[in-house]
Design goal:
The complex is a heterodimer of chains A (about 270) and B (about 290). Chain A has about 270 residues and is an alpha/beta fold. Chain A has helices at about 5-15, 60-65, 100-105, 120-130, 135-145, 150-155, 165-180, 195-210, 220-230, 245-250, 255-260, and strands spanning about 20-30, 35-45, 50-55, 80-85, 90, 105-110, 185-190, 215-220, 230-235, 240-245. Chains A and B meet through α3, α4 and α7 of A and α7 and α8 of B.
Chain lengths: ~270, ~290
């Protein structure tokens, strides 16, 4: 498995991709109290690409995602070893403020979780508490447009966000995250609570978003990973089994176990 | 019965009968409580309504029943409850917020939790003794409104804290995650999202707690609220009386007329309680709607 990053690089060159990394994971291990949830994982997350993390339930993929913006800090007894480089700085360094990390690395969760406030305030709140001084009207419109929600809600910005459908709520959560203009957007199974049509809309949206943002998505759905991602990391039992460009993972994986998983023989 | 066999049918009938018996038992218990309350209210109204007039509301206590009134007790109670609310709500809600959102979940937190639950069960007279020792004597606040309010606040703090903690616990974790992932600090998350979302539940606890405070007599007697006050308190340092004290005083007199005055006092006390609760519930429902 240690050879997969090199394979990835060779593959990239063959495909003419540039390889600028936003996040670099170096020997990352994550523990819950004494239990090891993620074991010595290393790979790079490329700028303006979608990286998918796939694997069977309990393989540590969500745990890994949540440590990329230090949301794991709220889990009692969670400890992270190794280095997570973001802008050449270790996210878990002593003088790094997790609040600042989360401002720059946004997150969308599995279950849509809008604030029980108006659509407008859902989006304006994040920038406001972070000291945004200009008028938020423009920002709200821009964010909703980016999340392809503007046309549906422009006439009811001051209605409660809870009146939106599940798919709309999830796009609102994406808009809310985008309003912070994060460098990276983490998505933790963002479509698992949605119907196929809403899922398709969000997948389309992700394609548009990678022009500006770097996206890391955890998904249960292998077809989704194959459809939308540029890179795929396959994990099992806390280990990174294989990391490569998505095309390669789904057509000619280097490791047998990966092939068994992506062809649906287990998991 | 084409759907069930004889055996299954009998079984089903038995289960339905059991359900009916249980439902009737619950209804009977509920209605006997309501009935008892009704009898009590009826009795009080019969005795007291004749004495209810403007003169009763606007007069100080007197040894002549026809001149006696409830003015000083009513004003004292309003002062007392106002001060109790101002003291106990911020302290109680902040404590609950700290325990739920900021303090760790270790051993000390457990010890504190158990102790608060126990404090809620301590007899009110014990709080009275504590208030007498600390506020009246040690801090030399004398037998003033502020001594009474501080004592009463101690008494109801456990109720407010427990109810607020339960309300805060019901706020979905997703809301906190959403706020944190936008780069909010713990304080910003607690203030802007956790507190508003748990506000209706907190209000319920506050209503219960203040309702208890308004009717408590023992701690006030202990710290020495007066029973005969012919002036109105003008500040927190003044001595005072309160409705339950005045009622207690009238009930313990031998003359029949004073017993009827006590009944009238009870009606006033209930009215104050009702107004207070109605206002709180109105505010709660209004914020609840806004949240939905």
């Amino acid at each position: 498995m240690s050879e997969s990053p090199e394979i990835a690089m060779a593959e990239e060159q063959a495909l003419g991709m540039h390889r600028k990394s936003v996040l670099e994971l170096r020997n990352v291990s994550i523990f819950y109290s004494e239990k090891k949830a993620v074991n010595d994982v290393s790979f790079n997350i490329r700028r303006n690409k979608i990286t998918a993390i796939i694997g069977p339930s309990g393989c540590g993929k969500s745990t890994l995602l949540r440590c990329l913006n230090r949301m794991n800090d709220f889990v009692e007894g969670c400890r992270v070893d190794g280095e997570l480089l973001f802008a050449n700085e270790n996210l878990y360094g002593k003088d790094v403020d997790p609040v600042e990390v989360r401002r720059r690395i946004g997150m969308v969760f599995q279950k849509p979780n809008p604030f029980p406030k108006s659509i407008y305030n859902n989006i304006a709140w994040g920038p406001l508490i972070n000291g945004y001084k200009d008028s938020t009207d423009e920002l709200v419109e821009k964010s909703l447009k980016q999340a392809a929600l503007w046309e549906e809600v422009r006439d009811r910005l001051h209605d409660s966000a809870l009146n939106l459908s599940g798919g709309q709520q999830q796009r609102l959560c994406i808009a809310r995250a985008l309003a912070m203009e994060p460098e990276v957007l983490l998505m933790d199974e963002p479509c698992s609570a949605l119907d196929p049509i809403s899922t398709a809309r969000i997948e389309d949206l992700m394609f548009e978003l990678k022009e500006k943002y770097t996206i890391v998505i955890v998904t249960h759905n292998m077809q989704q990973a194959a459809r939308i991602s540029d890179y795929t990391a396959f994990m099992e039992m806390g280990d990174l089994i294989e990391f490569n460009v998505t095309k390669r993972i789904f057509t000619r994986p280097a490791i047998k176990r990966t092939e068994e998983y992506v062809t649906g023989r287990f998991g | 019965m084409p759907l069930t066999t004889e055996q299954e049918h009998r079984n089903l009938v038995r289960r339905h009968r059991k359900a009916r018996v249980f439902a009737r038992f619950c209804a009977a218990v509920t209605w006997s409580g309501v009935l008892l309350l009704g009898v009590l209210l009826y009795q009080v109204s019969i005795d007291g309504f004749g004495w209810l007039d403007w003169q009763f509301l606007d007069s100080f206590p007197s040894r002549f029943p026809e001149r006696a009134g409830i003015k000083s007790a009513l004003v004292g109670t309003v002062w007392l409850i106002g001060l109790v609310a101002v003291i106990s709500i911020p302290v109680g809600v902040s404590t609950a917020l700290y325990l739920e959102e900021f303090a760790g979940k270790g051993r000390i937190a457990k010890v504190i939790e158990v102790n608060i639950a126990n404090l809620a069960g301590v007899p009110s007279i014990v709080y009275g003794i504590l208030g007498l020792a600390i506020f009246v004597r040690y801090l030399a606040l004398e037998r003033s409104l502020i001594s009474g309010a501080l004592t009463m606040s101690l008494l109801i703090l456990p109720v407010i804290i427990i109810a607020s903690r339960e309300a805060i616990k019901t706020v979905p974790q997703g809301i906190r995650n959403a706020a944190y992932s936008l780069g909010a600090t713990k304080w910003q998350t607690a203030w802007s999202h956790v507190l508003p979302a748990s506000f209706p539940g907190i209000m319920t606890g506050v209503i219960l707690a203040l309702s208890r405070a308004i009717g408590e007599t023992a701690p006030l007697i202990m710290i020495g609220a007066l029973t005969f006050v012919a002036f109105l308190p003008e500040g927190p340092m003044d001595s005072f009386t309160a409705l339950p004290i005045q009622i207690y005083n009238w009930v313990s007199r031998p003359q029949e007329e004073f017993h009827e005055l006590a009944a009238a006092g009870i009606i006033i006390l209930l009215a104050v309680l009702l107004i207070m609760n109605a206002t709180a519930i109105y505010i709660r429902n209004k914020t609840e709607r806004r949240l939905k």
